[in-house]
Design goal:
The structure holds two protein chains of two kinds. Chain A is α/β, with parallel strands linked by helices. Chain A contains seven helices and ten strands. In chain A, helix 3 packs across helix 4 and helix 6 crosses helix 7. The relative contact order of chain B is 0.12. The chains are: A alpha/beta, B mainly alpha.
């Protein structure tokens, strides 16, 4: 890539103290993210979720830096929206209020806020549920709210932390398709998606690039470019070649 | 617990949790002393009282432990043919261990609360003096020797803390592995700071009235019991009738139990049970200060006293709520502040409020003279008895805000005042309610020792209040028994009514602020 990548991970390492002993979680991780759908794949504990949080500015590297458009990431920004594995919705707020959560950040009028929230609630297929509470929703619906909340920022970068792993297989499959539809929609303002997952098939099915990480301490052991047109057929032999390649690198 | 037993048992427990335990203290003492006079009797009485304080906490702990055994373990035990005795040894006993230790900690906490009251008190004609730390502090304060009193207090606190470190903490650490309750890796602000987290968990809901602990567990929440959907599908009309039957049963049981309490009081005080007319006469002629013209007496006195106690409790409650909320928010915002403040609260909470009373009274009365002084002292004493329930419930709730919520609010720019307003305070709401319930329970108990204070030899200061009525009635000997019973009933009923009308309703509304686990 000749232009400055959207996100640049530059030699990032992270360790923390557990019972007085330092534990290294990430070691010398470097890669770039352009205008693409990128997946970070790795076994549990390899630090991929921590890495995502550092990209969003929720955590700081012990060494190295994360750059967003050339500038180091200092903290969360409305230009990045994050979707959480456990949905992270506020139980006493309605769907509408949850989706609106980040919009106060953005200094837009109240009418604009309402309009935007309602638009994205519709886009994720939750029309009519604006006044419902998270308790009344199924897992899949809750994650849709999480996605709507992120999209409402109309962010440049969409970050997803194992977004489908708390859902049953059928619901997850449905949501994956929806996310890919949103991604392929030319009106969608987001240019980059970074998704963390431990499900290799999911990564190969969705991503342009797959970053493969080793077990703890996490290092980048492969950077795979998936050259397949979407929608991708799981029965295509190339699909399985990719999956095998990635799995063999991890184990 | 079988369903039918819980019909009767739960209303009884509901009442029991509202009874001010300290109200019975004089009665028990007098009862034992008439049988076993002298110092032996005093020791015996105090041991009996400490025992009753402790046994509740431990009983409820054992019940809780058994209730927590998951159904699938019970089924697996049956499926794999585990015999009764093995089941008891390998499943039931380990399930009890962590809760039992917890119950022991609470039991000792409750006992320390009783000690100062027992060791230095005046019941009617008798003056109780038992050699002990509580006595040391109280006497030093009565003789205005402030430095001795404080030394005594420090000694007591050191002993309590020493027992904590040497006995309880290691036991808790060793039995934690038997615990079924999942504490979840996702929870908690300070998940990485193990020590901080474990000390916070230790104080979540820690209280001195052991009976109230049981109701921390919502399984026994009476209103939720009434709303339990019967297993068989019941048409709405029948359900309404059932609910009404339950209500009537409950009321009957409560009245029955109150009646039983009255009988117990009469029995303990060795007073004959008067006729209704005689009883009413006794109440009407009761006056705290004998022969005072223009003073209230009888029923107007009782009404006025109840109102005064209520107002004082309200004042103390509002002050407690104010500062504990601020403290809770401050701790949530800055970790450094948390590290500094938590140990201070830890120690503050270890000081049995009743040991503090004589010192606080001495300090206030030496600077501000009565009647203002004694009112202030009374409120401060109530405060010390109420605030820790609120504080630790609030801190516990804030601490339990799930990790993903604190991350997502950070990721979406919700910070500072907005975070406090929209996240912290709503998240604390359920804890504020349960803390308030416990605080008021503890507060009523405290009125008994904070409204009538012995400030020296033969010197007494008192304020108008139900607790003072109780103590005065005790001093009146058998003529006052009816009044004692009445005062205790009034107190219990007030607590029950406030619970129903205020706290249970607020609890229901607080439901929506709970995080799903």
């Amino acid at each position: 890539m000749t232009e400055e990548p959207v996100i640049r991970i530059d030699n990032v390492s992270k360790s923390f103290l557990s019972e007085e002993k330092p534990v290294a979680v990430l070691e010398n991780v470097s890669f770039n993210v352009g205008k693409e759908f990128l997946c970070i794949v790795g076994p549990s504990g390899c630090g991929k979720s921590t890495l995502l949080r550092m990209i969003d500015g929720l955590d700081r590297p012990s060494q190295g830096n994360v750059y967003f458009h050339g500038k180091p990431v200092e903290g969360p920004t409305p230009m990045m929206g994050m979707v959480f594995q456990t949905f992270a919705l506020i139980p006493w707020k309605t769907v509408l209020e949850n989706v609106e959560m980040g919009l106060a950040w953005m200094k837009i009028t109240e009418e604009d806020r309402l309009r935007r929230s309602e638009k994205f609630i519709q886009d994720v297929g939750l029309d009519g549920f604006e006044a419902s509470y998270p308790k009344e929703l199924s897992g899949g619906m809750k994650q849709r709210v999480g996605i709507a909340r992120a999209l409402a920022l109309e962010p440049e970068v969409l970050l997803m932390d194992e977004p489908f792993s708390s859902l049953d297989a059928l619901t997850a499959e449905g949501l994956r398709k929806e996310v890919l539809e949103i991604w392929s929609n030319p009106q969608f303002s987001t240019n980059s998606v970074i998704m963390v997952t431990h499900n290799v098939q999911e990564a190969v099915g969705m991503a342009d690039t797959v970053i493969v990480m080793s077990p703890r301490p996490g290092k980048v052991i492969d950077n795979v470019r998936i050259e397949m047109d979407r929608p991708r057929d799981q029965r295509d032999p190339r699909f399985y070649d990719y999956v095998d390649r990635i799995i063999s690198r991890i184990s | 617990m079988s369903r039918r037993a819980s019909h009767v048992l739960l209303p009884v427990l509901d009442v029991l949790q509202s009874v001010p335990v300290l109200g019975f203290l004089p009665a028990v003492f007098i009862f034992v002393l008439t049988r076993v006079p002298g110092e032996g009797g005093q020791e015996l009485a105090s041991i009996i009282l400490i025992f009753t304080a402790m046994v509740w906490a431990m009983t409820f702990a054992v019940i809780t432990g058994i209730n927590q055994i998951p159904n699938d373990i019970k089924e697996a035990s049956k499926a794999y043919g585990i015999t009764r005795s093995r089941y008891l040894r390998q499943v039931v006993l380990p399930a009890i261990y962590p809760e039992l230790i917890w119950g022991c900690i609470l039991a000792w906490g409750g006992a320390w609360y009783f000690i100062p009251v027992e060791e230095y008190a005046t019941f009617g004609m008798t003056q109780v003096q038992l050699k002990g730390l509580g006595f040391f502090i109280a006497q030093a304060a009565a003789e205005s020797r402030l430095d001795s009193a404080i030394i005594g207090l420090v000694a007591m606190v050191l002993v309590i803390i020493a027992i904590n470190r040497i006995v309880w903490r290691p036991l808790v650490a060793r039995t934690e592995k038997y615990r079924y309750e999942v504490t979840g890796g996702q929870r908690g602000f300070h998940a990485r700071h193990g020590k901080l987290r474990s000390s916070l968990l230790k104080y979540e809901g820690r209280i001195t009235n052991p009976i109230v602990t049981f109701f921390k567990y919502e399984k026994t929440n009476l209103s939720s019991f009434l709303e339990t959907v019967p297993r068989v599908h019941v048409p709405p009309k029948v359900r309404e009738r059932l609910a009404r039957i339950f209500l009537v049963t409950r009321v009957i049981v409560i009245i029955g139990f109150l009646g039983l309490m009255v009988l117990v009081i009469f029995f303990l005080e060795n007073s004959p049970i008067p006729t209704l007319q005689a009883a009413l006469n006794q109440i009407q002629s009761f006056q705290p200060i004998k022969g005072c013209t223009g003073c209230l007496s009888g029923f107007p006195l009782l009404a006025y006293s109840t109102a005064s106690s209520l107002l004082r409790l309200l004042a103390a409650y509002l002050i407690a709520l104010g500062w504990t909320l601020l403290a809770g928010i401050a701790i949530a915002r800055r970790q450094k502040l948390a590290k500094a403040l938590i140990p201070i609260f830890d120690i503050g909470q270890s000081i049995p409020a009743t040991a503090l009373f004589p010192i606080v009274t001495l300090l206030i009365l030496s600077r501000i003279s009565s009647p203002m002084g004694i009112q202030l002292a009374s409120i401060v004493l109530l405060l010390t008895g109420m605030q820790w329930y609120l504080l630790f419930n609030i801190i516990g709730a804030i601490h339990n805000i799930p990790n993903d919520i604190s991350e997502s609010t950070s990721a979406y720019g919700v910070s500072g005042k907005r975070f406090i307003r929209e996240i912290l305070i709503p998240a604390s709401f359920p804890a504020i309610i349960s803390g308030s319930m416990q605080a008021w329970g503890g507060g009523w108990n405290a009125t008994i020792v904070s409204e009538y204070i012995v400030t020296g030899q033969q010197q007494v200061q008192q304020v108008a209040g139900l607790g003072a009525v109780l103590v005065n009635a005790n001093n009146a000997g058998s003529a006052g028994t009816v009044v004692i019973a009445t005062a205790i009933i009034i107190m219990t009923l007030t607590i029950l009514i406030i619970n129903r009308l205020v706290w249970h309703r607020l609890m229901k509304r607080a439901d929506r602020y709970k995080f799903e686990s």
